[in-house]
Amino acid sequence: MLNVISFIDKLASNVLLSGVVMSNNNNLKKKNRKFFSIANLPFYYGWVILFVASIGILASVPGQTMGVSVFTDYYINNLSISRVQISTSYMIGTLASSLLIPYAGIYFDKLGARFVAAVSTFFLGIFVLLLGNSQKIISFLSDNINLPHIAIVFIVITIGFFGIRFFGQGVLTLVSKGMVAKWFGARRGFAVGIMGLITAFGFSYAPQPLHKLILIFEWDKALIVIASFLIFIFLPVVILLYRADPDKYGIELEQGMREKKLSNNKSAMDASIEKSVKEARKEPLYWIILATLGYWSLFNTAFTFHVVSIFKETGLNAQEAVRIFLPMSIISVIARFIASYLSDRISIKYIYITYVSSLIFVSLSLFLLNLPGINLLIILTFGIANGLFGMLNIVTWPKIYGRKHLGAISGFAMSIVVAGSAIGPWFFSVIKDLTKSYHLVGLFGIIITTIFLIFVLKANWDVRNDF
Fold first, then answer.
1. Which one is predicted more confidently, 297 or 244?
2. Angle between the 65-79 and 134-144 helix axes, to the nearest 10 degrees?
3. 150 vs 8, 71, 280, 327, 431, CA distance in Å?
4. Segment 323-370, tens digit of pLDDT
5. Which residues pair with 290 in a beta bridge?
6. CA 92, CA 319: separation in Å to the nearest integer?
7. Which residues, other chains included, contact 189 with Cβ-Cβ below 8 Å and sequence gap of 6+?
8. What are phi and psi of 37, to 5 degrees?
9. What pTM does this model have?
10. 3-state DSSP call for residue 17?
11. What does the DSSP 8-state code read for residue 32?
């Protein structure tokens, strides 16, 4: 499979656009015919990268929490597995995927975006296909393997969750975001804002077409349809249009664009020293950043997973509870646009201060869950935190550690984010079972995020540049 993709990868680089190039250039004279390359396009290819990377993140929905949650009850009802068991399976699969994601980042640096994204798209489709055929697979294994039925169900579902979480939420998302970070410099904040607009509303809307697919085809066949889309429609898009970085194709960063004058604040620029992931790990700042990003992944995933149960404490029913996601998405997009704009002009330190402060208020709103009007505070602070998280998860690494080892550095960070998303729902459920409420989660969050804010304020943010 890898050899096939490699062959197609090489072929696609020569046939992106057809047409014979006539030129007096000595290098071109050596060839009778040559197809256009992206360097010959009359516009900067980074805008294509921005568009297809946004689509790539949306294509990862089958491996994201909101995509999995649509099918959760169907797994429970049709595979004879309990909610606790499937939650445990989900956690194990996600944690296992987090251990491998750093290696995906390394391969992204070595092999490029197109190859790694193509492989991840193909295998994301394969694992979605596995889940779509899970009933048949479980039935076959039960007839031929001497294991308890529930053990076979648990193993098959865990393998499926591992695959969609690793290749979807992990690799495909990592590569798509990493491409945008590599193809944009002075306009990176603007590009990330555009990406946020597309993906935020795309994720908010995604459950609706997934539900419609289930109504039309039933749950298992709906998964097969999704797998077919990934392999036969999106995979060719990846092979044809994904590219690692402009340097590889002899293109300058943001080539052909008017030079953009930003503030004279050097701390707003990309790092002038390229650092490896080993060097980054030696710096306290890297771990402070990872802690704040990992915590929000934990909190955000758990909140989304238990949203109906959380708002039940305030007297809202299930339909009323899920309605908060639309205003949250609007706040998130606004916050992401503003922060993306500012990231090109001010030190990223101040955005982290705002981000961590919003985490404190989110935790406070959960601690004060029963107060009148607390839902407004939840919507506002949750939206701000989520918007800043999405932006910082892209722009942080080139600004502090450069672009050369971006895959390895962001890959290790992604592993922490994915691990947090695995632990979060389980942690919330344990607190709920012990205390019959989510107030203690809020108190825990206030303490942790306050400590984060102190570290962010005290951190040495000058490690990023050779001033």
1. 297
2. 40
3. 42, 19, 44, 40, 27
4. 787 788 889 889 988 998 888 888 899 999 999 999 999 999 999 888
5. none
6. 30
7. 339, 340, 341, 342, 343, 344, 391, 395
8. -110, 175
9. 0.77
10. strand
11. S
> Number of helices and strands (H, E) in the chain?
22, 0
Quick count: other Cβ atoms within 10 Å of Cβ 47? 16
DSSP state of 166: I
Residue 16's Cβ-side half-sphere holds a number of Cα atoms within 13 Å equal to 19
Phi, psi of 379 (to 5 degrees): -60, -45
Residue 459 identity = A
Whether the pLDDT of residue 15 is over 70: the answer is: no
Torsional sign, CA 237, 8, 106, 122: positive
Query: Any bridge partners for residue 36, and if so which?
Result: 17
Contact yes or no for 402/273 (Cβ under 8 A):
yes
Tokens of 221: 């066949």
The one-letter code for the residue type at 401 is Y
Question: Which residue carries 């290098």 as its tokens?
Answer: 27
Cα 222 to Cα 132: distance, rounded to the nearest angstrom: 7
116/462 Cα distance (integer angstroms): 33
φ and ψ at 415, to 5 degrees?
A: -65, -35
Burial 303-331 (b: 16+ CB within 10 A, else e): bbbbbeebbeeeebeeeebeebbeebbbb
Burial tier of 156 (Cβ tally within 10 Å: 0-12, 13-18, 19+):
buried
Encoded tokens for 183: 């193809």
Radius of gyration from C-alpha coordinates of the chain: 23
Domains of the chain by start residue, with CATH: 2-9+45-249 (1.20.1250.20), 267-464 (1.20.1250.20)
Residue 86 has pLDDT above 70, yes or no: yes
Indicate if the alpha-carbon torsion angle 51, 57, 60, 61 is positive or negative. Answer: negative
The residue assigned the tokens 């193809």 is 183
User: CA-CA distance, 171 to 120, in Å (whole number)?
Assistant: 6
DSSP letter assigned to residue 270? P
